Amino acid sequence: QQQKGEGKGSKGKGSGKGGSGGKKQCQFSIGIEEEPCFRVCRRILGPQGQHMKDIAQSTGAKLRIRGAGSKFLEGPEQKESTDPLQLCVSAPDAADLQRAEE
User: Fold this and answer.
1) What is the model's pLDDT at position 23?
2) Non-local CB neighbours of 4 within 8 Å, separated by 6+ positions
3) pTM above 0.90, yes or no
Protein backbone atom coordinates (compact mmCIF):
# COMPACT_ATOMS: atom_id res chain seq x y z
CA GLN A 1 0.00 0.00 0.00
CA GLN A 2 1.43 3.36 -1.00
CA GLN A 3 0.78 6.54 0.92
CA LYS A 4 1.74 10.03 -0.16
CA GLY A 5 1.78 12.95 2.19
CA GLU A 6 2.84 16.46 2.97
CA GLY A 7 5.65 16.37 5.49
CA LYS A 8 6.98 13.89 8.00
CA GLY A 9 4.49 11.40 9.31
CA SER A 10 1.63 12.48 7.05
CA LYS A 11 -0.82 9.96 5.75
CA GLY A 12 -3.19 10.25 2.84
CA LYS A 13 -2.84 11.65 -0.63
CA GLY A 14 -1.00 14.86 -1.43
CA SER A 15 1.67 16.43 -3.55
CA GLY A 16 4.49 15.77 -1.13
CA LYS A 17 6.56 17.91 1.15
CA GLY A 18 7.29 21.41 -0.07
CA GLY A 19 4.35 21.79 -2.45
CA SER A 20 5.04 22.18 -6.15
CA GLY A 21 8.67 23.29 -5.83
CA GLY A 22 9.97 21.21 -2.91
CA LYS A 23 11.21 17.71 -2.29
CA LYS A 24 8.65 15.00 -3.07
CA GLN A 25 8.12 12.00 -0.83
CA CYS A 26 5.96 8.94 -0.31
CA GLN A 27 5.73 6.01 2.06
CA PHE A 28 5.09 2.35 1.33
CA SER A 29 3.68 0.24 4.14
CA ILE A 30 5.74 -2.97 4.38
CA GLY A 31 2.88 -4.94 5.96
CA ILE A 32 5.20 -7.46 7.65
CA GLU A 33 6.81 -7.12 11.06
CA GLU A 34 10.58 -7.51 11.34
CA GLU A 35 11.57 -10.83 12.90
CA PRO A 36 14.86 -12.75 13.12
CA CYS A 37 14.05 -15.68 10.83
CA PHE A 38 12.57 -13.90 7.79
CA ARG A 39 14.52 -10.61 8.20
CA VAL A 40 12.27 -8.48 5.98
CA CYS A 41 14.47 -5.36 6.36
CA ARG A 42 17.51 -7.29 5.15
CA ARG A 43 15.56 -8.63 2.15
CA ILE A 44 14.42 -5.14 1.15
CA LEU A 45 17.89 -3.66 1.56
CA GLY A 46 19.57 -6.46 -0.40
CA PRO A 47 23.10 -7.77 0.06
CA GLN A 48 25.18 -4.95 1.56
CA GLY A 49 22.22 -2.63 0.86
CA GLN A 50 22.60 -3.10 -2.89
CA HIS A 51 18.86 -3.00 -3.78
CA MET A 52 18.46 0.40 -2.12
CA LYS A 53 21.77 1.69 -3.52
CA ASP A 54 20.78 0.72 -7.07
CA ILE A 55 17.44 2.53 -6.83
CA ALA A 56 19.04 5.61 -5.26
CA GLN A 57 21.82 5.75 -7.86
CA SER A 58 19.53 5.31 -10.86
CA THR A 59 16.83 7.76 -9.71
CA GLY A 60 18.45 10.30 -7.40
CA ALA A 61 15.94 9.33 -4.70
CA LYS A 62 16.71 8.79 -1.03
CA LEU A 63 15.26 5.61 0.49
CA ARG A 64 15.06 4.55 4.11
CA ILE A 65 13.25 1.91 6.11
CA ARG A 66 11.72 3.23 9.31
CA GLY A 67 9.43 1.87 12.00
CA ALA A 68 9.51 -0.93 14.55
CA GLY A 69 12.39 -3.29 13.85
CA SER A 70 14.10 -1.02 11.30
CA LYS A 71 16.94 0.11 13.59
CA PHE A 72 16.46 3.59 12.04
CA LEU A 73 16.93 6.09 14.89
CA GLU A 74 15.03 9.35 14.58
CA GLY A 75 14.45 12.60 16.38
CA PRO A 76 16.56 14.23 19.06
CA GLU A 77 16.05 11.18 21.29
CA GLN A 78 17.54 8.94 18.57
CA LYS A 79 14.91 6.25 19.12
CA GLU A 80 13.36 3.79 16.72
CA SER A 81 9.77 4.66 15.78
CA THR A 82 7.00 2.42 17.06
CA ASP A 83 5.10 2.87 13.77
CA PRO A 84 4.71 -0.22 11.57
CA LEU A 85 7.58 -0.83 9.13
CA GLN A 86 7.53 1.39 6.06
CA LEU A 87 9.77 2.30 3.16
CA CYS A 88 10.12 6.08 2.86
CA VAL A 89 11.16 7.47 -0.51
CA SER A 90 12.04 11.10 -1.20
CA ALA A 91 13.33 12.77 -4.34
CA PRO A 92 14.11 16.29 -5.53
CA ASP A 93 11.24 16.29 -8.02
CA ALA A 94 8.13 14.37 -9.08
CA ALA A 95 9.83 12.69 -12.07
CA ASP A 96 12.62 11.20 -9.90
CA LEU A 97 10.07 10.07 -7.32
CA GLN A 98 7.97 8.38 -10.00
CA ARG A 99 11.04 6.52 -11.31
CA ALA A 100 11.92 5.35 -7.78
CA GLU A 101 8.34 4.15 -7.19
CA GLU A 102 8.51 1.95 -10.29
Assistant:
1) 87
2) 12, 13, 14, 15, 16, 25, 26, 27
3) no
